[in-house]
C-alpha cells in the first residue's frame, strides 16, 4: 500500500504547451475568417520551413532540444514518484494493510529527536532506507546527545512500525 505522488508538473507543462499552440492556431484561423492579418502567418512559416535544410544547425539544435524534452517528460511519466504513504507492518496477527503519511512519520520522528535532553532543535529527513536527524544542542558531550537522539528516534520507529525499517543517522551541531 504505497501511494505515490502524482506527476502533475510535467503533465501541466505539456498541457500548457498544447493549450498555447491550440490558442495560437485558433486565433489565427478566426483572424483569417474575419479578413484580418493573422498573428501566425501560415505563408511566412511555410516559406521559412521550405527554405530551411535538414542539415542546418538550427534544425539540429531544435531537434536535440525537443528530443531531450520528450525524453524528460517520458521519464517523468514512467518512473515512480516519491512515496507519500508508507506501508506499516501488520504485526503478528492478521495481515492488515495500513500506512502512514511521510509527513506524519517525519513530524513524529522530529518530535522524538527534540525530546532528547540537550536538544534545542532538530531537522529530520526520511529517505527510503535511512532517517537522518540533524540536531542542535547546547550540551558539551555531542556523543551523549547523539546516542540519546538515536535511541529516541529508534524507539519512535518501534512504535510506528514501518514495513521497512530505516537506519538512523544522527548529526549533532553545538550551538555557541
Q: What does this 3D model show about the protein?
A:
InterPro entries: DUF6286. This is DUF6286 domain-containing protein. Residues 157-176 are annotated as: Disordered. By secondary structure, the chain is of the alpha+beta class. The chain has two domains: 3-78, no CATH class; 85-174, 2-Layer Sandwich (Alpha-Beta Plaits), CATH 3.30.70. The protein contains five helices and six strands, in the order βαααββαββαβ. It has helices spanning 8-33, 42-51, 57-78, 102-114, 142-160, and strands at 3-4, 83-88, 98-101, 119-126, 130-137, 167-174. It has a three-stranded antiparallel sheet with strand order 1-2-3.
| CATH architecture field of the largest domain | 2-Layer Sandwich
Q: How many DSSP helices?
A: 5
Unreliable stretches, pLDDT < 50, 5 or more residues? Answer: none
According to CATH, the homologous superfamily of the largest domain is Cation efflux protein, cytoplasmic domain
Helix content: 40-55%
Q: In CATH's first tier, which class of the largest domain applies? A: Alpha Beta
Instruction: Note the run of SSEs as H and E.
Output: EHHHEEHEEHE
Oligomer category: single chain
Tell me the domain tally: 2
**Major sheet summary line:** 3 strands, antiparallel
> For the CA atoms, what is the radius of gyration?
28 Å
Query: How widely separated are the two ends?
Result: 45 Å
